[in-house]
Design a protein that fits this description.
- This protein is mainly beta and 699 residues long.
- It has 4 helices and 42 strands.
- It has a 25-stranded antiparallel beta sheet that branches.
- The two termini are 43 Å apart.
Length: 699
């Protein structure tokens, strides 16, 4: 670990010396542009707020930084965002997100995701390919007042490029080690500034990193094809409409799990007989209409999301042909939101909104007991959910004196969920046994208030205090083995935060810091089912999470940027009795899958060449670290602090860029996931050192 930490520091030091010697003006390519985003484009009905002057702990990544850092999906954000963790394991189906200790391994997410204002409610849709991205925002802490359900940990907003802000065609080809290839193309334009269009598509092939010894093939290979269309129409000077449609198909060899060696903290070879996979169709569509009046903005957004996925998994993860599970799931979700808010800085700022959705979700589990009875158990479940919400937020500016603002917000949510479970068992002789259908219905009412005080020392320096309530929706354990485990109720939290942020020394220093304390009750805790097959959620705990976040970007020159992000989370169970009769009490233990520390140290440097054959060279190096974290609530399985070093070198000539990149330069080995099944312990190993070359042509 020491060598991995010294390497990036040495790179940063060397770049700083070079920058001091050569400070050429590079206004248009200043690395500050990758991090400093003050101009905000209104996308989505709640957009339009500059997060750099809002009382919230947030990180913004520009499209330039995302491209230069080889961020292909949200899991690549690990290390970039303080106290953000999205473990990379299993498949695209297994995509939990943890922020400040709040997350969920199964069922609904605890962190919200919106793409161009379109809500993504199911965690199995969180892992998608990023292309033509304008910026990504990560808001840490509960966002229940404006966003409602399942945003206890925060919100991720992804914005694609607007057809009215960009023009041109881009083509990209990429080749890397381990059989990684990518081809992408996009075209953005508009007709007379009134009709705009954005078209993009890509194909990505991952050869795989982890070999299955049983068949000699890689157990994590993947193919992904994507397409996106975004149309814009300036109907009138004050009236604009956007229509977005995106599709992604992925075919993934999945779940490269092997036996875990606790003494060496390593995963032995992957060796199972039945190849595991996950295939998914994902479609997202949205219509946004915005009316901008001199004193207010009215927005309306209607969206439809569809996904259809199929998973096959060797559930025993051994060469024995014992147990195989086929899982299919499908979702159709329609949502609508209308928002009206004041514009411009006034004595009183306000916004009102209404939101409604209908989510139809169905799944089927086919369990083949091959080694025991050669029987097949088929369970089909439907869980349609409807929801309705009203929300309001008011801000009084210059409350008692200039610079002091107070914000009060409140949201009311009503949600109804029903469930029907039908199970059939087929024996080897063909006899069919039907169980009586199991049904359920539940209705939840939630009120989530928010309070904050903000003081602006200057236009770009502020301090704030906030208190916010969050909640995560309840639901059903659809494959519960006991009736008492059928239902789980909503989870609640109160989050308290103090922070400050600002820009100093004529823009050469951007810094923000925050302290937080989260107290939550009725905690939905992931537990193994009695049969050791699958998980369930149970309202069994009370927990507290406290910590801090610090981010700073320093620009000694227009060519050099130095960036540090650090997060610390101390999340423990205040009250969690796992099994009262057996005397198993986990109170005081750390929450699982929550890194104690997240660290990022990065440097960007642009070398002007100004030759006929080359304009400039851009260097980028980043050290990122995570840990310590526990894999289980018992706090027995642990992953110590680990780190990675990534680097890129780009050669740029007008519209042509050739980038040489490398990931995990020190070939750090660690465990990305751990679980127990019966007496066996399994894990997934990390990806090894990899490298490649990208060529991008922009016209």
């Amino acid at each position: 670990m020491k060598k991995g930490f010294l390497l990036p520091l040495g790179i940063v030091f060397a770049l700083a010396i070079q920058a001091k010697e050569k400070d050429a003006p590079l206004a248009e390519d200043s690395v500050a542009l990758s991090y400093n985003i003050h101009e905000v484009v209104i996308v989505g009905v709640k957009g339009g707020k500059d997060l750099t002057v809002q009382p919230v702990s947030a990180t913004q990544l520009s499209g330039q930084m995302i491209a230069e850092s080889n961020i292909y999906n949200l899991k690549d954000l690990n290390g970039f965002i303080p106290n953000f963790f999205m473990p990379e394991y299993g498949s695209k189906l297994t995509s939990p997100v943890y922020v400040r200790g709040i997350g969920s391994r199964i069922n609904a997410p605890s962190v919200g995701l919106y793409v161009d204002g379109i809500p993504y409610f199911d965690r199995s849709s969180f892992d998608f390919h990023l292309q033509n991205i304008e910026r990504i925002e990560v808001l840490r802490g509960p966002q229940g007042t404006l966003y409602g359900r399942n945003t206890m940990g925060g919100i991720i907003n992804v914005y694609t490029q607007s057809p009215f802000r960009s023009k041109g065609s881009t083509m990209q080809l990429s080749a890397g080690s381990h059989g990684n290839y990518k081809a992408a193309a996009s075209h953005i334009g508009n007709i007379g500034g009134r009709f705009g269009y954005s078209l993009s598509g890509s194909y990505n092939k991952t050869g795989g990193y982890i070999k299955n010894e049983y068949n000699g093939e890689n157990a994590d290979a993947m193919d992904v094809a994507t397409g996106r269309v975004r149309l814009g129409w300036n109907i009138r000077p004050q009236l604009t409409a956007y229509l977005t449609s995106a599709y992604e198909y992925s075919d993934q060899q999945a779940y490269p799990y092997g036996i875990y060696d606790a003494e060496r903290n390593t995963v032995d070879k992957v060796d199972y007989n039945a190849p595991s996979y996950y295939r998914r169709h994902l479609s997202n569509n949205g219509l946004t209409v915005e009316y901008a009046a001199p004193s207010f903005r009215l927005g309306s957004q209607t969206s439809f999301q569809y996904f259809d996925g199929k998973q096959g998994i060797d559930q025993d993860f051994t060469p024995n042909d014992a147990l195989f599970v086929t899982f299919t799931h499908r979702q159709q979700m329609v949502s609508h939101e209308t928002n009206i808010q004041s514009v411009g800085k006034k004595k009183y700022d306000w916004q009102f909104g209404v939101f409604a959705f209908r989510q139809n979700y169905s799944q089927t589990n086919d369990i083949e007991y091959r080694a025991f009875s050669d029987s097949l158990k088929v369970t089909s479940v439907t869980t349609p959910t409807t929801g309705f919400a009203l929300y309001h937020q008011s801000t009084l500016n210059d409350l008692f004196f200039e610079g002091l603002s107070a914000t009060v917000g409140v949201r009311y949510d009503r949600e109804k969920i029903t469930m029907e479970n039908r199970t059939k068992t087929f024996s080897k002789s063909g006899v069919e046994e039907n169980q009586s259908p199991v049904t359920g219905r539940d209705v939840y009412h939630q009120v989530t208030p928010k309070f904050s005080l903000q003081y602006n020392f200057t236009a770009d320096r502020l301090a704030y205090l906030s208190a916010t309530k969050g909640y995560k929706a309840g639901g059903f354990n659809t494959t519960a083995e006991e009736e008492k485990d059928r239902v789980f109720k909503p989870e609640h939290s109160w989050s308290y935060e103090a922070g400050a942020k600002g820009v100093f020394f004529d823009g050469r220093l951007h810094a923000d810091a925050s302290l937080f304390y989260i107290d939550w009750t009725d905690q939905q805790i992931t537990q193994r089912r009695a049969s050791e097959q699958g998980f369930k959620l149970r309202n069994a705990g009370k927990s507290a999470s406290k910590g801090l976040e610090i981010s700073a970007s320093v620009f000694p020159s227009k060519a050099l940027g130095l960036h540090v992000d650090y997060g610390y989370t101390h999340a423990v169970f205040k009250d969690y009795v796992y099994n009262e009769s057996a005397g198993i009490d986990y109170s005081g233990n750390f929450l699982s899958l929550v890194p104690r520390n997240t660290v990022s140290v990065a440097a960007d440097y642009t070398v002007p060449v100004n030759r006929e054959w080359l304009d400039r060279i851009k260097l980028n190096a980043r050290y990122s670290g995570l840990g310590k974290l526990y894999w289980d609530d018992k706090n027995e399985a642990v992953q110590d602090y680990y780190s990675q070093v990534n680097a890129t070198v780009s050669f740029i000539r007008k519209g042509v860029s050739v980038e040489v990149w490398a990931k995990n330069l020190t070939n750090e080995k660690y465990v990305t996931y751990y679980f127990e099944m019966g007496k066996n312990r399994f894990g997934q190993p990390s990806k090894p050192f990899s490298f490649g070359v990208d060529m991008t042509i922009s016209i």
